[in-house]
Specification:
Layout: H1 8-24, H2 58-67, H3 77-89, H4 97-104, E1 108-113, H5 133-145, E2 148-151, H6 156-163, E3 169-172, E4 177-179, E5 193-195, H7 202-216, E6 223-226, E7 231-234, H8 243-254, E8 260-265, E9 268-273, H9 279-289, E10 298-304, H10 310-319, E11 323-327, E12 338-340, H11 343-363, H12 365-384
Parallel strand pairs: 1-2, 1-10, 2-3, 10-11, 11-12
Antiparallel strand pairs: 3-4, 4-5, 6-7, 7-9, 8-9
Helix pairs in contact: 1-2, 2-8, 5-11, 7-8, 9-10, 11-12
The protein binds the ligand O=P(O)(O)OC[C@H]1O[C@H](O[C@H]2O[C@H](CO)[C@@H](O)[C@H](O)[C@H]2O)[C@H](O)[C@@H](O)[C@@H]1O.
The site of the ligand O=P(O)(O)OC[C@H]1O[C@H](O[C@H]2O[C@H](CO)[C@@H](O)[C@H](O)[C@H]2O)[C@H](O)[C@@H](O)[C@@H]1O has 23 residues, from strand 7.
Length: 386
């Protein structure tokens, strides 16, 4: 279904164009936001504020849908050269591992991991995106040393069911549902919830989920996933000739919900609240919760594969701290510093970080003290919350 000859730079502009017409260009007035971008008052939105540009040509949408998860490399010499140049700009994290480890000395490393396409391979059925046992082991080990967070578009409960490590932080719904580790403390109910900036949107999301199920049921292969604060309409298994129709149906639903916006992931249309909150904000929130808001002694490492991870890469660039690592087999426009080709490489890199730290810990006494302090601090912060 995917056109293997699609040119990457065209792909990126198609996505950018489609996102622009879809409402990404629309942001609520900053004066209405609460501190930290916390929930907007739903009453502030009216139909008249809905971007007219949403009616813009569907061609851009279908192009973007086609390009949203290109899987094959072209072997033309031009593309090979392009790939070489891209790798020079975003070297493999495995190739520069020593550099990363040396930057980590005397710093508190904090690990952020996307789920789909990073910890698990991209598969046809979203319910079967399992993590390899080696990956789980690698994540479990790295979390013994460093605060480790999973930052995913999926709802928190679902991503937790795949990962099943209670010692981690989880930021589900693209960072709109953050919770600290439950392993260290027994708590009832949802006392542990640290941050749900889109909480007020929950009834709307539930309502729209029902409408989308109804609207898309005539399209074979379409699958609507309820990710709590975000709804995912998958088209990986929809015939390409029906993509236009699917996009139209989704957009027609959104016309009645100006407080929601439409974005795209890998063969998925995503509907989410129009609040200024994304994976980058989630990263900042977690660093702040850990006591590293303005610290020079922290080294965040974020590994992700998707457009939504770019928000986190951007935050790291802006902070001038840590490393963004993009998991991708093909060159993509990215704010990440380094790259990895696919999830098994990410697993290897995570294991190497953990082993590297064991070595640093045994040879650099100050570094190991620093790591211990960080570990203790991150336990204390989350034990004191709730
Ligand atoms: O932020 P992430 O953890 O990467 O989640 C993004 C979306 O991932 C899932 O969809 C993607 O992976 C599926 C399984 O491999 C694949 O079938 C689908 O085409 C991809 O878009 C998940 O199902 C979505 O809800 C997430 O938003």
């Amino acid at each position: 279904m995917t056109n293997p000859n699609v040119v990457v730079s065209d792909t990126q502009s198609a996505i950018a164009m489609a996102l622009a017409v879809a409402g990404n260009a629309y942001s609520p007035p900053p004066s209405n936001s609460q501190p930290n971008g916390y929930p907007y008052n739903l009453a502030l939105f009216s139909k008249s504020k809905f971007p007219k540009s949403l009616e813009t040509k569907n061609i851009a949408w279908v192009e973007a849908m086609r390009a949203s998860s290109p899987t094959r490399n072209s072997s033309s010499s031009e593309d090979t050269e392009h790939k070489k140049a891209w790798i020079m700009k975003h070297p493999s994290a495995l190739g520069v591992f020593e550099e990363i480890m040396s930057a980590a000395k005397m710093k508190q490393v904090v690990i952020f991991l996307d789920y789909d396409g990073t910890l698990s391979p991209i598969v046809e059925n979203p319910d079967q995106a399992y993590m390899a046992p080696e990956m789980r082991e690698a994540v479990k080990n790295v979390a013994k040393y460093f605060p480790t967070a999973i930052v995913s578009g999926r709802c928190r409960a679902k991503v937790y069911n795949f990962v099943r490590l209670s010692e981690l932080y989880y930021a589900g719904s693209h960072g709109m549902d953050i919770k600290g580790p439950s392993a260290r403390k027994h708590q009832k109910g949802n006392q542990n919830v640290l941050c749900q900036p889109a909480k007020d949107f929950l009834p709307t999301m539930t309502e729209v989920y029902g409408i989308l199920l109804e609207k898309t049921k005539g399209i074979p292969g379409a699958n609507v996933e309820n990710n709590k604060f975000c709804l995912s309409v998958h088209f990986r298994r929809v015939e390409e000739q029906s993509w236009n129709d699917l996009a139209d149906r989704v957009k027609s639903v959104l016309k009645d919900y100006p407080e929601l916006r439409l974005t795209q992931g890998r063969k998925v249309l995503e509907i989410r609240p129009t609040i200024k909150w994304d994976k980058g904000k989630a990263l900042e929130f977690l660093l702040e919760s850990l006591g590293y808001a303005n610290s020079k002694d922290v080294l965040p490492i974020y590994i992700g594969d998707d457009r939504t991870d770019e928000d986190a890469f951007k935050v790291l660039r802006k902070r001038g701290q840590g490393f963004g690592i993009l998991v991708s087999k093909i060159p993509k426009e990215t704010e990440a510093t380094y790259s990895l080709q696919e999830p098994p490489e990410a697993s290897y890199a995570i294991s190497a970080t953990f082993s590297g730290m064991e070595t640093i810990g045994s040879t650099q006494s100050l570094a190991s003290i620093e790591i211990e302090c960080g570990k203790k601090f991150h336990q204390e912060v989350f034990e004191s919350v709730g």
